[in-house]
Amino acid sequence: RQIQESEQITEESLERIESLKAELSALDDQRKQFQEQLNPKEMIFIDSGEFMMGDDDGPRDEQPERTVLMNGFWMDRYPVTNQEYKMFVDVTGHRRPPNWTSGNYQLEEANNPVTNISWQDALEYAEWVGKRLPSESEWEKSSRGTVGQTYPWGDAFRKDNVNSSNDYNGTTPVTEFPGGGSPYGVMDTCGNVQEWCEDWYYDDYYKTAPVDNPTGPTGGQYRVCRGGFYAENRMGVRCASRHFAPPSTMQDHIGFRCAKTPDG
After folding, report:
1. Closest CA to 94 of 64, 127, 68
2. In a structure prediction context, what are the per-residue pLDDT tens digits for the chain, which is 264 residues long?
């Protein structure tokens, strides 16, 4: 009799587990539907067409300056924040950034860009919200527009438009610099934190890169980061400035934003 009762309990437990799995799956399907509705509201569409990429007056890896033709794409208006990333780790159980204390970010930094995440962490978040990481060329076009200007707002450096030169001793909220928007209205691309891109980094890539939708070399040791960060000078936070890091690195000055290919 005890064996029968034990078997019954085991069977009921298994049924409960299967029921919970079904509920969780249904909830995740619901979340995906909500996320699909939310994505266009938090993203900006960047029209297809040409733009000027690179800088002949910059370091060697930004040369040659050239015209690149891009398909249209969606880009996040802001970098991913601590608050947004916490929802991801709470729901999925993904590892938390090592700089969070007791499993959480500092409350006053809820709207600061999340940092101390690897390239893979950023990729998994992007996939969870139905997006992807931007290519280096997508990032640059969304930041500088089509005519090759030096900064998102124009050619003249404006320190009141960007978190750089250690003026703020660390990261700032992604909405802190309303004057720093690009011609498309993409915000906070330069300064504050560098942002992971999809591409592998190669210093001479521009010399042989295709002019249509370049996506970087097929492999490498480093991934591209763009935008400079809070401790860099005006050269480091130019739209054309290229940075790179091993994909496994987790630093307090590297974050990310997401992109999305239009449906159809």
Report:
1. 127
2. 656 666 666 777 777 777 766 666 666 666 666 566 656 668 999 999 999 999 999 999 999 999 999 999 999 999 999 999 999 999 999 999 999 988 899 999 999 999 999 999 999 999 999 999 999 999 999 999 999 999 999 999 999 999 999 999 999 999 999 999 999 999 999 999 999 999 999 999 999 999 999 999 999 999 999 999 999 999 999 999 999 999 999 999 999 999 999 986
Q: What letter would DSSP give residue 144?
A: H
Alpha helix (H) ranges present in the chain?
2-42, 82-92, 119-128, 136-144, 205-208
Whole-number Å distance between alpha carbons of 192 and 176: 10
Are 76 and 257 in contact by the 8 Å Cβ rule? The answer is yes
The C-alpha atoms of residue 189 and residue 241 are separated, in whole angstroms, by: 12
3-class DSSP state for residue 34? helix
Tokens of 257: 């934003």
d(CA 186, CA 207): 28
Q: Which residue has the tokens 């000078």?
A: 233
> ∠ CA 80-85-87 to the nearest 5 degrees?
135
Token pair belonging to 25:
């799956």
DSSP 151: B
pTM of the model: 0.88
